Amino acid sequence: MSKVKVLVADDHEVVRSGLASLLKDSEVDIVGEAANGDEAVAKAIKLQPDVVLLDIRMPGTDGLTALERIRVEAPDSRVVMLSTYDN
């Protein structure tokens, strides 16, 4: 069984590394990390991950705008939106 390729996009490095640590030794392969929406879109196009874990609030291009672009540019990637905000 092949591993699920995941791109983690969050503006907080500690969140990105924490998710990578949690998923270590699992059926998940972290193929890339992104610190903002533009970087997330570029890496989704280049890496073609199975799943993008995408923070909603990031500086510059936010996760919602990045989601729209990823859906067009990397349509086979599924996106899971992340947020630490309760609203």
Task: Describe the protein's architecture and organization.
This protein has about 90 residues and is α/β, with parallel strands linked by helices. Helices cover about 40% and strands about 25% of the residues. The chain contains three helices and four strands; from the N terminus they run βαβαβαβ. A four-stranded parallel β-sheet has the order 2-1-3-4, sandwiched between helices. β3, α3 and β4 form a beta-alpha-beta unit. The protein is globular and about 35 Å long. The termini are far apart. The mean pLDDT is about 95.
Provide a quick synopsis of the model.
This protein is an alpha/beta fold and 87 residues long.
Rg, Cα atoms, Å = 12 Å
In DSSP terms, counting alpha (H) and pi (I) runs of 4 or more, how many helices? 3
The total beta strand count reads: 4
- Biggest beta sheet attributes: 4 strands, parallel
Structural class estimated from helices and strands: alpha/beta
Return the string of H and E elements.
EHEHEHE
Q: Average pLDDT value?
A: 93
What is the quaternary state of this protein? Answer: single chain
Helix content: 25-40%
Which regions contain 5 or more consecutive residues with pLDDT less than 50? none
Strand order of the largest sheet: 2-1-3-4
Percentage of residues in DSSP E strands = 25-35%
Determine the N-to-C terminus distance: 38 Å
Shape: globular
